[in-house]
Design goal:
Largest sheet: 8 strands, mixed
Order of helices and strands: EHEHEHEHEHEEHEHHHHH
Structural class: alpha/beta
InterPro entries: 6-PGluconate_DH-like_C_sf, NAD(P)-bd_dom_sf, P5C_Rdtase_cat_N, P5CR_dimer, Pyrroline-COOH_reductase
Bound molecules: 1,4-dihydronicotinamide adenine dinucleotide, (2S)-3,4-dihydro-2H-pyrrole-2-carboxylic acid
Helix content: 40-55%
Mean pLDDT: 96
Domain Pyrroline-5-carboxylate reductase dimerisation: 168-269
CATH superfamily of the largest domain: NAD(P)-binding Rossmann-like Domain
CATH class of the largest domain: Alpha Beta
Pfam family, one: P5CR_dimer
Domain Pyrroline-5-carboxylate reductase catalytic N-terminal: 13-104
Number of helices: 11
Binding site for NADPH: 64
Strand order of the largest sheet: 3-2-1-4-5-6-7-8
Distance between the termini: 44 Å
Length: 272
């Protein structure tokens, strides 16, 4: 059953400030879980780009002040370089009754609270674009938020997938593994598809086989709680084709390239 049905948790109006890739994914995820569209505001500069949400009765506007005034929960999904100026513009309209949730990477709770008055409660969250289909993994962290507000934030992100509470010091790592992770996995799937076409499948069939196989592999870990290598051992017949292919992939730097990519991503966030 959709998570927001028959709960008290869907009584707050939510404003998503910055309806771009992630902001829109969050709005779509809320709609999928039957959050009342009339209790969702989404803002962006070019508001016409939100017409698909408007058609679903979501309030869409370029007026951030209006969205803030009409809402209890404010989810900021702006690019990091925009948040300071937008928060400063909105500061006089944000009250202690608001809950601020920032999904912005590389902008700390301290930096956020420096733009606002001290009594404002802030939660940092790091979801991914699978929020649109209720399959995000969201890490959340907070310093001054009440247990009730942390519960509220968790409830929202649980509706969009799963939520893990972390220490803020791990937020860059959460950004890389969880949010950038979607892109890494999709690139892996794309490579599987390209290989699949080379060995005989048409693109559509290769996409279906690769995507469902990745889903199945994930579910084996999520449902059984096993180590990946335990499941790999069940596939690798001695002298068989799986181990031959896997070893060739490793000779070519498969695991190493992924680990190095993850480290490069976090270094990119932490370089300034
Ligand atoms: N895209 C992703 O997968 C993820 C993004 N993030 C973080 O979320 C934030 C947003 O990322 P994206 O959605 O990818 O960026 P985006 O550029 O697609 O979205 C930002 C949106 O903000 C709008 N905007 C700009 N100025 C505005 C203003 N003054 N008022 C209202 N809206 C305004 C832009 O028009 C744009 O639609 C970034 O900080 C990013 O690091 C975090 C996790 C995943
Ligand atoms: O690439 C980025 O910087 C953002 C942060 C996480 C996903 N996209």
């Amino acid at each position: 059953m959709p998570l927001f049905i028959n709960t008290k948790m869907n009584q707050d109006t939510i404003a998503i400030i910055g309806g771009g890739n992630l902001g829109k994914s969050i709005a779509l995820g809320l709609l999928k879980q039957q959050y009342n569209p009339e209790q969702i505001y989404v803002t962006r500069t070019k508001v016409a780009l939100l017409d698909d949400l408007k058609a679903q009765r979501v309030h869409t506007t370029s007026d951030n002040v209006l969205a803030v005034q009409q809402s209890k929960i404010l989810i900021f999904a702006l690019k990091p370089y925009r948040i300071e100026s937008v928060l400063k513009e909105l500061a006089s309209h944000i009250t202690k009754d608001h809950l601020i949730i920032s999904v912005i990477s590389d902008f700390s709770l301290e930096q956020l609270s420096n733009c606002l008055t001290s009594e404002i409660q802030i939660v940092r969250a790091m979801p991914n674009t699978a929020a649109a289909i209720g399959e995000s993994l969201t890490c959340i962290a907070s310093k001054n938020a009440s247990a009730e507000n942390i519960k509220k934030a968790t409830f929202i992100f649980d509706a969009l997938g799963e939520t893990i509470e972390i220490d803020e010091s791990l937020m860059d790592a959460a950004t890389v593994l969880g949010a950038c992770g979607i892109a890494y996995v999709l690139r892996f799937i794309r490579a599987m598809i390209q290989g699949g076409i080379e060995i005989g499948f048409d693109a559509k069939t290769a996409t279906k086989i690769a995507s469902q196989t990745v889903k199945g592999a994930s579910e084996l870990l999520l449902q059984n709680g096993n180590h990946p290598e335990e499941e790999i051992d069940k596939v690798t017949t001695p002298k068989g084709c799986t181990i031959a292919g896997l070893n060739e992939m490793e000779h070519q730097g498969f695991s190493s390239s992924l680990i190095k990519g993850i480290k490069t991503s976090i270094e990119t966030i932490q370089k300034d």
